[in-house]
Amino acid sequence: MSNVKVGEAGGISVVDFAPFLDGSRKQEVADAIVQSFKDIGFVYLVNHGLAQDKVDGMFDWSKRFFSQPMDVKMLAPHPADGAHHRGYSSPGVEKVVKDVFDADELKERRAKAPDVKESFECGREDDPYMPNIWLPDGVLSGFKETCTDFYWACREVLEMNFLRALALGLRAHETYFLQYHTKADNQLRLLHYPGVPVEQLKNEEVTRIGAHTDFCSITFLFQDSVGGLEVEDPNEPGQFKCATPVDGAVIVNAGDFLQRWSNDTLRSTVHRVRAPPNFASSVGMTPERYSIPYFCAADFNTVVDCVPTTYSAGRPKKYEPISAAQYIMERLAANY
To answer: Where would I find the Fe2OG dioxygenase domain in this sequence (predicted)?
Structure first.
């Protein structure tokens, strides 16, 4: 395992995914991934197979989109219904929190310390639950096509191979998770964090993204070089470590649904976005930040039970079977 784990960043393993992709050391890579998911719920992947120029191109288009005037971006508005995560959301509209489901409390928290970020979200074109909301034809031509291409590249290159590794690491059949992820019920999100006063972030007058967990199966996150992502230390609740950007890496984390699915074998860990570590500015402002998460969910209409290898007579199942739609839609609606 020492040869496939090539380092650490913020206590998170950096794993070389190439020996899985070429078949030379599949089980060792799978074991390293699962161990990191058990320890902290996150793992960095290098040599993950997705071409860097494709990643760089998506970041370039993201910057082009967010640089448009507000009236242009609002031509693809995110619906008021929080369960329909598609289209553009302006700064301060969303408030990401953990385990807060009361609408009045969410409203109060949003007013007290809004999330200063803007986002654009899309999924597969034939999604019956959440149809995409694009800019009108002729406005920022090429944006839709680039998003769609990147969405499917993440699906085929990252998600499918990572799910195989995850299954092997849990000592299940390599295709175990694939049968529950056949429809690409996923979400690509482009994120832009405008510069904000450092002191306001430190005093929590504003937030970038507050402490929360993801609620899907897995999340792939591409970061720019600015930094700011922090992951809670499982051994010291309330203490966070900086998940420093690693060149050429995608950082992957387990969601709440996967923790439940794995019978709590894997961790869905609290994380947040703050000011970059050790940042000092003569004007007192944080730099703007861009990131691209790709959220992967099990097929919405499929009911899943705990992974068979994660329970036994001595370690019984903790959860009843549930559909991804039932689980995820409740969480989406509660956090917007």
So the answer is: 184-298
Query: pLDDT grade, residue 280 (50/70/90)?
Result: low
d(CA 89, CA 91): 7
Write out the two tokens for 114: 């809004």
DSSP state letter for 309: G
Rounded to an integer, the average pLDDT of 120-141 is 94
* E strand or H helix that includes residue 104: helix 103-112
In degrees, rounded to 5, the angle at the alpha carbon of residue 19 between the alpha carbons of residues 15 and 21 is 105
**CA 59, CA 179: separation in Å to the nearest integer?**
31
The model carries a pTM of 0.90
Q: How many domains does one find in the chain?
A: 1
Here the CATH number for the domain that contains residue 267 is 2.60.120.330
Give the SS3 label for residue 125.
Answer: coil
Could you list the residue range(s) of the whole structural domain that residue 329 is in? Answer: 5-334
CA atoms of 130 and 122, how far apart (whole Å):
9
Long-range contacts of 23-29 (CB under 8 A, 24+ apart): 26/165, 26/168, 27/168, 28/1, 28/3, 28/4, 29/4, 29/165
Cα–Cα distance, 25 to 23 (Å, whole number)? 6
Contact of 267 with 310, CB cutoff 8 Å: no
What is the rounded distance in angstroms from the CA atom of residue 82 to the CA atom of residue 333? 5
